[in-house]
Amino acid sequence: MSKSETESVDFVRQIITEDIANKKNGGAVVTRFPPEPNGYLHIGHAKSICLNFGIANDFDGVCHLRFDDTNPEKEDVEYVESIKEDVRWLGFDWGENQFFASDYFEQIYLWAIKMIEEGKAYVCDLTTEEVREYRAGWNKEGKDSPYRDRSVEENLDLFQRMKDGEFKDGEKSLRAKIDMSSPNMNLRDPAMYRIRHQHHHRTGDKWCIYPTYDWTHGQSDSLEKITHSICTLEFENHRPLYDWYIEALGIHHPQQIEFARLNLTHTVMSKRKLLELVQGNYVSGWDDPRMPTISGMRRRGYPAVAIREFCAHIGVTKFNGMTDLALLELYVRNNLNKTANRAMAILDPLKVVIENYDEGKSEMRKAVNNPEDESAGIREMPFSRELYIEREDFMEDPPKKFFRMAPGREVRLKNGFFLKCNDVIKDDDGKVVELRCTYDPETAGGKAPDGRKPSGTIHWVSAAHAIDAEVRVYNVLFEKEKADDVPEGVDWKETINPESLVVMKNAKLEPSLADAAPGACYQFERLGYFCVDNQDSSAGSLVFNRTASLRDNKKKK
């Protein structure tokens, strides 16, 4: 990882620097990234990944990858594997430090018994609705459960019977005995275990009681000797409970530090809402290039380094805010400008016939692969009598500031010759289907001997040599900057941008792209950056996704 990606000193790194100076934890730094395997990771998780693994790299520490698999109803091995793939793709390695919360189920269960024995936990028969009623609201004091004063012996017996599968889902729960009058709702006798007769993707049917996130998380951190448990701000009110559990058990105490999560314009970041988009077929899947998921961005062609640099730039703060998607696209664009080879592609082809060019003749024109990288070399492009140009590069009756092709007007073909439109051919419906032109063979170097200058420069491909492709132009998924900020009674999904995906099925590409590999990125000259789709593209049937436009243009998004 480059120095530029980690050189900023944020408040989390300042805390860790002070801890090391004070010999806290013996100077060790152990962080963790703890995703729940109930969906695919998104760009917000990328920020957390970069922070946790980045800190470990910066301070010669270790970062664990730990799956918080305490909710078997929503979790799946598919999500586990996708998370591992995403973390690796971003450039990070957890080595031997892969763990699961389920690795600790037995120890956490024994600790729960210890809590019961010490009078710090009890079995409660209240339903979920009744628990909510007893806990009351933020501005009211809660009241004790009628089962709060059960004896230790009775609680131990009931908890054992819960584990043995004697009770139905929701019939009983194990709750911590803390303070029902606390202004912090998380301390009002929170649930530690709930009954779930559900198959677990790792432990099978061994358990029918599963620990809650709050009861499991801190104890897993402690068992792994995590020094700094870094999480997003929504867990700030959970920190007193995190601390209470660890202090009640008298075990290793990591320091929880909260930072602001990443919110991005024109999309949603809630896993629940992303799942709704997938299950409702609003997108093609978790890796749909319109999704803010890491797999979606990878499929769209975003370079991993661009995401890391973006995360480093936005930094780590204590204040929630909204980051413009255009900033992420800027990092993508800047990176691809340096690394992506150039190519000619016509998305909406209009045929051009050069009447003074011999039929059957063709010649090769040289083109620079990447002006930002001399080592990329040059390529040759065939030029022939019949070409394709972009339909939008021609207007029959152009306005004053239109500098491309029009009747009687001469333009420069990039890496080609000067071309003049003499005649326009239309079909029976009046649609322009062909242009009849002449070229000046003396302008092969891009300049005319007499010094005349064309009105503009356009790109092209030889019709005889072009390869067919499907090109998917992706735009923002939601037109609104705050995608889920909708009036009451309006379904947030109704605000999906109807032009978030525009499919060009008749694109024509220069022949050098015939062997383009899945995932390869190119700059289609004058059009933007495009990536070979890694799912639907195959030899002889190319599919390209637009990664980013050449510049930020919100009106076209």
Question: Gist?
Answer:
The chain has 557 residues and is α/β, with parallel strands linked by helices. Helices cover 25% and strands 23% of the residues. It contains 12 helices and 25 strands.
Layout of helices and strands:
Layout: H1 11-21, E1 30-33, H2 43-58, E2 62-67, H3 77-89, E3 98-100, H4 105-117, E4 121-124, H5 128-135, H6 152-163, E5 173-176, E6 191-195, E7 209-211, H7 213-223, E8 228-232, H8 239-249, E9 255-259, H9 271-279, H10 294-300, H11 304-314, H12 325-339, E10 341-343, E11 345-346, E12 349-354, E13 362-368, E14 378-384, E15 386-390, E16 410-413, E17 418-426, E18 432-440, E19 457-458, E20 461-462, E21 467-474, E22 501-509, E23 521-524, E24 528-532, E25 542-548
Parallel strand pairs: 1-2, 2-3, 8-9, 10-23, 12-18, 16-19, 21-25
Antiparallel strand pairs: 4-5, 5-6, 6-7, 11-22, 12-15, 13-14, 15-20, 16-17, 17-18, 21-22, 23-24, 24-25
Fourth-level CATH superfamily of the domain at 11-259? HUPs
Give start-end ranges of low-pLDDT stretches: 1-7
Amount of helix: 10-25%
Instruction: Please tally the β strands and state the result.
Output: 25
Fraction of residues in β-strands: 15-25%
Rounded to an integer in angstroms, the radius of gyration calculated over CA atoms is 30 Å
Report strand order across the widest sheet.
10-23-24-25-21-22-11
CATH topology of the domain at 11-259: Rossmann fold
Largest sheet: 7 strands, mixed
Q: What is the C-level CATH assignment of the domain at 11-259?
A: Alpha Beta
CATH architecture of the domain at 11-259: 3-Layer(aba) Sandwich
**Which secondary-structure class do the elements indicate?**
alpha/beta
Tell me, rounded to a whole number, the average pLDDT.
Answer: 95
Number of H- or I-type helical stretches:
12
- Our measurement of the CA-to-CA distance between the termini, rounded to an integer number of angstroms, reads 32 Å
Principal-axis shape: elongated
